[in-house]
Structures are given as structure tokens and as C-alpha cells.
Amino acid sequence: MIITANDVKTNGVSIFDNILNKFDELIINVRGKNKYVVLDIERYKAFKEGELDLAHMKVMEDIKNGNYKTQTASQHIKELVSEL
After folding, report:
1. Could you report how far apart the first and last alpha carbons of the chain are, in Å?
2. In 3D, which of 22, 16, 14 has the Cα closest to residue 41?
3. Tens place of pLDDT for every residue, the chain, 84 residues?
């Protein structure tokens, strides 16, 4: 569901409850462009959990394939600084 920023200004955040009871997410359109997404907190938590699970799977795959290196914290900082 898409609403305008003006709808939010006019109705306040109470509009979120009404819409999120019917739809999974709410997109806020600002000056003709979709700019923000509002999610119910439980859906947000599930989204973040899935994101972390995916990141963990990618790291485990890298470890399995040997796509990593071992270095000291000092070496790592030097490497990061040289990348800047």
C-alpha cells in the first residue's frame, strides 16, 4: 500500500495501524517518489533475522571454501586504512 507524506502529516502515525492491519507493508511517497517503508515490528524482526541468517550462511560458505585470511588486529587496521 502506498500513501503520501501529506497523508501522514494529516492523519499522524495512527494511519499506520489502520493500513498495517490490512497490508504487510506501507510505502510512503514523498513528492512523487517512493521513499520510506513502514513495517509492523514483528515483520521487521523477522526480516532482520532472515538477513542475519543469510549473512551467516555466506560466512560459513566462505570458511568452507577457504575464502578468508588470518591476520592480527594491527594488520587488519593497516589494511583498512590503506583501502581509504
Report:
1. 41
2. 16
3. 899 899 888 988 888 988 999 999 999 999 999 999 999 999 999 999 999 999 999 999 999 999 999 999 999 999 999 999
CA distance 71 to 80: 12
- Cell numbers for 14: 495512527
**For 1-84, where are the E strands, in sequence order?**
2-4, 25-30, 33-39
Q: Which of 10, 11, 39 minimizes the C-alpha distance to 23?
A: 39
DSSP strand pairing (33-39 vs 25-30): antiparallel
Distance from C-alpha of 70 to C-alpha of 7, rounded to nearest angstrom: 53
> Which single residue is written with the C-alpha cell 489502520?
18
pTM exceeds 0.70 for this model? no
**Domain coordinates in residue numbering, the chain:** 2-39, 42-83
Residue 24 cell numbers, joined: 504487510
